[in-house]
Amino acid sequence: MLTEDKGGVEIRPVSQDNGFNFNSVAVNPLRIDPRYSLSIQTIGRIERLAKVRFVTAETTPSFDPAKFDKNDEDTRRSIALSVFASSEIEGEGISADYIETFVTAHTEPGEMVDAELRERIQTHRDIYDTYFWALNSQPEQVLTYDFIIEAHRRMFKNTMGQVAGRIKDKEVRIHWHRRDGLLVDVPTISSEQAEEFLRSLCDRTARIFMIAKESAETSMLLSSAEFACDFLAIHPFLDGNGRLARLLSTYLLEKGGYHFARVYPLDQIVMDSRADYYETLNASQQYWHLPQEDLTPWINYFVGAVFEQWERAFRRIRNQAAYAKESSKNKLYTKSY
């Protein structure tokens, strides 16, 4: 029997036939690397992304995209956009009218704000601060279990109470609507296994990043993509996993040399393509950590999202450089006149 949700979309009964079975899954991937195949388009995008830091440097030599200065207005705006987009994806968004209050560093809600909105504003502010904390951190190992626990604690310390920064203690299932209206029910790793799986994921990701720094045997970009898929399959916390996964994706990309977040947020790209985000993630987790797993849909999506992030970031940098150049010319003209 079909039912109707608040938005007028017909929803079929929850699907139980989704190919997931995490009851006896291995703590590490069983498929021999790689766990995916790359399309020609994805390979082309990876090649282009490898060159973009030089393109950015040529366009604005004095601009340092890796510097996250909380005193810089443009940086504050980009991080605020990250937080707002990421929260909107989870249905926890607030009006874009509040973005400028973050940019101007005035985020105290007024007296007329109701309790629910006040709590959401507080969460946005805490996540905003956590982005700056993470992106400015310089840990000896790029990713650790303790780093993730601390990030979650910082993000939700004022709104989740004792749950913030603590591994889930009961089952967590994900529900999302497909394009055809089907409500998909997705299990995650059990609470008893969550810590073990998360620790293993952190160690594996850190090891791949270390190898990538010293040789061409691995890829930080592709490792970042794998991490996001794996983290969301584990779903280690009772709530906030999606927002934390996107923060950590931005963090890992920055540590891998993909310095676009200061100019344009990855979260906005995901927001603009969230149907593809959920569908490729769901498809890639069908046989997660089993010999027949295939992360290809997710990997191609993730690389495409980062590529789109760079394109939007570069357009913004180029336009700002052109504007600055034109303004300089006008000043010289006025002075000589």
Automatic annotation (TrEMBL):
InterPro entries: Fido, Fido-like_dom_sf, Fido_containing
Chain coiled-coil ranges: none
Chain positions recorded as ATP binding sites: 239-246, 277-278
Example GO molecular function: ATP binding
Domain of life: Bacteria
Matching Pfam families: Fic
All copies of domain Fido, residue ranges: 143-304
TM ranges: none
Enzyme active site: 235
Keywords from the UniProt entry: ATP-binding, Nucleotide-binding
PANTHER family, sorted: FIDO DOMAIN-CONTAINING PROTEIN (PTHR13504:SF38), FIDO DOMAIN-CONTAINING PROTEIN DDB_G0283145 (PTHR13504)
Record-given protein name: Fido domain-containing protein
Species, as recorded: Candidatus Desantisbacteria bacterium CG2_30_40_21
